Amino acid sequence: MPAAPLRFMRVLDGLWQVGGDVITTPEDAAVYLVLFGGEAVLIDAGCGKHHSKIVTNIQVCLPPKTPVTHIFLTHCHYDHAGGARKLAEKYGAQVIAHEAEAEWLEQGDNSVTGASWYGATMEPVRISRRITRPVERFSFGGHILTARHMPGHSPGSLVYTAGMEGKTVLFGQDVHGPVSPQLFSNAKDYRESLEKLLGLGADVLCEGHLGVFKGKKEVEKFIRPYLAKAARM
């Protein structure tokens, strides 16, 4: 018999994957829930197709009455950001994205976000804060989440890092690409961003579609083939 779908996946203490492929729906990129002391944040929001499943998973993982205060988007694509509006409305959360993609998110652009690839409609979402600098830091009760602009897959692609259990956790959604003209990808930027990702020396990589990789060697082993491919573009 096929394995039962996962409800959620614990990554570390205070870090869970609550959405994505076998957890919610194949159209969802990974959605990560991070607990920082007395508040929680989401990294990406899925496509919104199974919003209720993500909400249920969040409720199961978090202590009662823990607020979800922010949704940090890695980029504007439908599978990562299509559910942001519903989750923001549910929790009263702020939505964070890079300034290069904020207008596409707020307008619900079906082409640039890739929603049209899924035969879907991108729900417009208000961006509470636009990332404008190469590196920006957010503090949550002594815990720091760092946003880094890593363009290539899309103009406003971001990665986030946080220290957890003495480890550097990298939320590097869509390390694998693709690089597509419709998405305004840039091969040179993509290659340079992959080099920067390697330089972070992350202990844990939470990728957007292909899983969680633990240990510096495993993280590097995952990234290097994509860097080699990008060098030939």
How would you describe what is shown here?
There is one protein chain. The protein is of the alpha/beta class and 233 residues long. The chain has one domain (9-231): Metallo-beta-lactamase, Chain A (4-Layer Sandwich). The model has no long low-confidence stretch (mean pLDDT 94). The termini are far apart. Helices cover 26% and strands 27% of the residues. α5 packs antiparallel against α6. It has helices spanning 51-61, 78-81, 84-91, 99-107, 187-199, 216-231; strands at 9-12, 15-19, 31-36, 39-43, 68-72, 94-98, 129-131, 135-140, 143-149, 158-164, 167-171, 204-206, 212-214. A hairpin with a 2-residue loop joins β8 (135-140) and β9 (143-149). The strands form 2 sheets. Strands 1-2-3-4-5-6-7 form a 7-stranded mixed β-sheet.
- Using only CA atoms, what is the Rg? 16 Å
What's the name of the CATH homologous superfamily? Ribonuclease Z/Hydroxyacylglutathione hydrolase-like
- How many domains is the backbone divided into? 1
Q: Spatial order of the strands in the main sheet?
A: 1-2-3-4-5-6-7
Overall mean confidence score, pLDDT: 94
Biggest sheet statistics: 7 strands, mixed
CATH topology: Metallo-beta-lactamase, Chain A
List low-confidence stretches. Answer: none
- Helical coverage, percent range: 25-40%
From the N-terminal CA to the C-terminal CA, the straight-line distance is: 42 Å
Percent range for β-strand residues: 25-35%
Secondary-structure-derived class: alpha/beta
Overall shape: it is: globular
Helix tally equals 6
CATH class: Alpha Beta
Q: What is the CATH architecture term?
A: 4-Layer Sandwich
Order of helices and strands: EEEEHEHHEHEEEEEHEEH
- Would you count the extended β strands for me? 13
